[in-house]
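Input sequence (1488 aa), recorded before submission:
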Amino acid sequence: LIRVTDLAELPSEIIGVAEPGDTELEILTFETKNPTELSEHLRSVCGNQSNAYARLLEYRLNALRGLWNAQRQLALEEQHERENSGDEETLALLKRQGLLQQPEQAPFTSRMGLLLVFPLIESQSRTDPSLCNVTAEVLLTCLRDCQPLSLTKEPADCLNGIESLLCSWLEETSTSGQQIPHKQKENAAAALVALACARGSLKTFVHTVHLLQKQSDLGSLPVADVLYRLLLLEGGPGSPSCLLGGKHVVSWGFEDMLPAPDGNPGSGSENKDADLGRCLAADGCYLYTTNSVGRGISKLGSGLHGTLRGFVYCRNEELETGWIAFGNGRLLHRPVSFDNKPHSLFQVIDQNTLQVCQLLPMPADHFPVGSTMTTVHLSSDGTYFYWIWSPASLNEKTPKGHSVFMDVFELIEEDSVCVANPLQERIILMRKEGDSAKSINEMLLSRLSRYRASPSATLAALTGSTISNTLKEDQAAANTSCGLPLKMLRKTPIYTCGTYLVMLVPPPGGSGSSATRSLFGGTSGLSSLKILASSLVFNISDGQFASRADLIDAAGSSLGRSALVPGLGACYDAMNNMIWTCSNDYIDQWCNPGNQAFHYVCQRLGVSHIILEPKGDAITTNEVINQLLHHVGAMCIHQLNLLAASNNLPITNFLGKQHPIEAHHLSSICDIMEKAMVNGDTCIIRCILVVFQVVFKFFFSPQTEKNRDIVRRSGLLLWQLLMAPADQISPEIQKEVCLAISSGLNILYPGEVEINNLLKLVLTEGDRNSGLAQLRDVIMTNLAEQLQNNRFGSEDDEHYRLNDELLHYILKIVVRESCILITKCQTVSRDEFQRLLSTVPAASSCLRYLMAVQNHLLSNTILIKPDENDDSDSSLQGETLKELKASILTLATQILTGCDEVLEMLQQVTMALINSDVPDREQRLKGLEQVTKATMLGHLLPVLLTSLMHPNLQTLTMADALMPQLVQLVLYTSQTALLLKTQSLVFSEVGSSPGGASEQRSKLFPDERMLEEKEEPGFLTGLKIPAPWAAGKTVETVHPVRDNYKFKETVHIPGARCLYLRFDSRCSSQYDYDKLVIYAGPNTNSRKVAEYGGNTLGYGSRSVLGTGWPKDLVKVEGDTVTFSFEMRSGREHNTPDKAMWGFSCTVRAQESSEDVSGGLPFLVDLALGLSVLACSMLRILYNGPEITKEEETCQELLRSKLLQRCQWQVEANGVISPALTPSPSPLPLTIDEDREFTYPSDVLVPPVGHYFDLPRIRLPPGIMIKLREISGRARPQFRPSIREVIQPDIMEEMVVSCVIKHLNLVDALQSLINFQYQEEHAEEYDLLCKIMGETFKKLNAMERQLQSVAELEQKWQSEVEDAMHGKLENNVPFFYDYHFNESKIKELELLCSMKEVSFDGSDLENMVLSLREKFFQEVNSLLQKPSHPMAKTKALVKSLMNRAELLLHVTIAAQSGLTRSISGTPAETPACKSASETKVISHAVRQP
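Predicted structure, token format:
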């Protein structure tokens, strides 16, 4: 169990930032209707990112992320464990219950012989009918002697053979047409019943009942005693109820909000022993607990059925000390004071107000008047109440061994008054000394501890004198009949499950007394094998001690975390079949390993649980059927409980393979059901419904036609029951039908379409029909649980996520529920309103499902690391981030729309309440906040808000879609928050003035308009935004510390740079070596920071070393600190508590301890959260789409003015492509390009013909030479090495092609070859000559520039190499004196740009210096790797080619005017026209 605060990183702002002054307290009112003003307001307040609320939100997001991450780790570990383990206990139990076949133990030969006999008898009996009778009688006598369920280990095929033989005799009439004799039929039927009882298999039972129902003429069967023995088994064997490590479900921290017991020394020591422990009761949804000494009562949510785990719904601090128990729908309390009032038994407590509402008198003649009594405990199994008491008094000077009695009461209504009625004879709880299995050392210890006080006694004992005997008897006498002393019993946790009464006692010798330590030095290192507690199990029927079970291996439970067993609260929760235990800080939930109590099972089946011994042997067929089904129902309920308790095992997988339920079994079940429905026999109907629930779990046969029919038939039967009018069917049956349908959901509705149709029906019609509403709740709860359990990865979670249409219906239901809840605040009576407040929040099943879906989507999205952003399958679901985002968007849209409606309603109700005249208006407005939290506003919105702040969800699409709704919600929440705020101000003023509230109000609100015009303080006035991380964490020992006490705890504050420790001034321990050691890190192997111990009070050690305890802050570097404290000395008799106080220390991440105020009012919180979210979304909208990688890569191309005039056409799929591109473009214009294009990231690799293999027809060399000629300019000369890099031919051809294409000179090329054409179009030819002149002039200039760059680069390169070989003359590079020489300044500038040194014309000397540094750096680094020759030149050439390439692929919008010189790019490029308008020019050059 981890506290969420340990998982939440500190907000980034906090770490190392000095607190800003008053900037945070800007006050904001949203009271303006003018949108421009509002937006200004919003920007000014929430736009500054460092506001306090944004920080709180960031902290919350970190907390969510930490929590979800931890849950994911857990889920993965559990999955791993599940794959590797099979739970042996459970498997053993399954075998005993007949769900698992056991290995067959028959030798082959005898089995073979038996199997061969069956066909013989069958064929022989056709000729000799009397054989049947003889055989049946033999079988009957054999089977009657079998104990029920004793044949489970026999070979199945033999038993099946007997079964089919008997069945065939019951079913057939003989061939000759004569009836089978009646007697024979009876025998066969009786034998079959006896076989079913002895075999205990569900299939045989069903088969038998089916056959018996068909036989109309059977009278009574001689099987009464067999059935009686069967029913006594109460549905099959089970293990006793106790706490087992493997059954520990979950442990969570809680605060009961009750005043702690005051340990004032004046109360005297004799009362201290009379203290009770904590008392706990559970009604299935809520837990009721007293404080740690049984006083007061607090009602907590259990986390089941939609309650909020650990939330205190209501409390009553005034309830006097005593015991509480819940059963039969009532909460009972027995105060300690009733031990002196023999006429009072219990008092009834109202579950909502927690006030005493009725007194139950002691039944007449039940209690012997005048005798003393001491109540030990009151407990309940959910139906009956068990009062455990002893006729002793606590203050007896000589304790004698008293009996401990148990009385069982049931509550009955007489004349609408509740009365307690004793159920059975008073029982004594007995546990003989031999039973207790005391270990020798325990005996030894109990003896030794008696002597510890007086040395003389010790001496006497060691010399074997007589003292010891008297002490021994004394010791035994002090124990009561159940083996524990009375004072101990009062603090012993006791619970009853209806079959057993269980006491939890500490492990033997585990008292931590110094004697144990001295004898068996130290504690055991194997913590997992340590016994944490023992369960002593007593039978309720006779009070005898049944067994003892030790609890080991529950390290996660509160006992595993060093809670003491005495004083624990414990109770059994019949509704969920759970056991709850409760220490002072934690509540633990355990599965009950035993079967449910028989009376509870019978109540569910609607039959009596009292089994009467039969008078004779004969019993009517109907009665046989009823009793068989009674057993089958009980057996199935046990099996269902077992499967529910072991849900972490893949049990169903191998169960299905073992016991496939065939179609004919299902059809028999349907027949039985139909007959029962015709006869209106509710008991049978209820039994069969339970059978359905089991059968559907194992019905794995392939979907053949026959099976489909049968499944359809069972489905129809169930629906018939579900839709029956309410007066014909009891709610219990309706509930079982819903459970049956939901357990068989995937079998009854095999396809997705069918399930969706069913859900649609249930969701839309649920309000009109109670049956459908119940079914809806059951299915939604199941889906929510499945989704919750499989949140992080499982193949079938798709199956639990419903489609958007269904989600919409669910949301409608949730919105309606929320609105109804809010209106109740205004409409219900005062008492009803109190009741409402003590039961909210409780989430309905639909709301729980929505929460599960939202958590599933958000947690998976938030846990995807941002760097996995490419759409790889990065979430465990294999859902990509894209899909998740899409789902979240649709969900968020729906949820926000829903919240909008609810908030509107809330505003109306608030207004109505403010203007109404109800007397408890103030209460109601206060309660409105709690009720609002209980609606979807509290359950869905905060998590959604917080998660939407995560970078993975801060996207443009989200912002775009959600913005309008967010603004609407901000308005609603802030207005309502303001209303509630001003209202509470009014109340505080009203309190002081004598004038009536109504006139006060009319002064304040003449009408709404006034509110807006007056400068109203906003809803944030006077509120401090909480900073939960500043509270720090407190680490403390128990006070005072006991002997042998060890304590180790690690505090981790994620994201902190260093931690500050402040120690309490009361810290003290007895000796210096009873010390606390502090380590900077997660365990005791980390760096040791300091150690403190001893005390300054002058007790124990008076050593010189006494470091004592620090008064100032202790600073520890890093974000983790470990405390390790150990009491090594035994306590001296004169050391007072204050010198053994232990220590307490607060760990914070900041030096200053801020005062941590409580939370904000809920609506203010919402309003702030919504505004911060809205602002961050606004920011996203304002920034527009992000710059893509491609855009960054092509930055300089996009900046080119020429290209900005190009036209781009948008293709159908939304990808932009240059107009008229016959060839694939070299730039990644689409992301899904077939070949990867990496643009200049890797410029160093020489281009491998990248731009030559285009399907563009190049200008032939002949034409190029001619064009060169008419330009009248010769090409510059290059060195071969430079020529290779610059590739002038290719470059010239590309540039000239561009010019020709964009200036429409294709036709003019004719004139080069065709003189006739040249004469006809003289102008064109002239233009061509001029343009070529310009073009080649620029080309030559560019080539020269490239040449000089290349030459410089070469020179640099060769000098670097020389320098490496030490041949550099004077050891100075060639440019050492460039700053003296003006003619070299150009070259210097080029060098600077090549080597990325920023050029500054005014400071040439420094330029040269920094270039020299670079030079020698390269010389030294070159020793490792040879550099590419002329890399810079290549990069320049490549980018030039890329531009030309792009120009070849686009059309440039025609300019007005005819001047088409390239050099004069106009400053303003006109808006691009579409491709169709411009004259389409093909640039496939004609071959001349």
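Checked by second reader. The mean pLDDT is 77.
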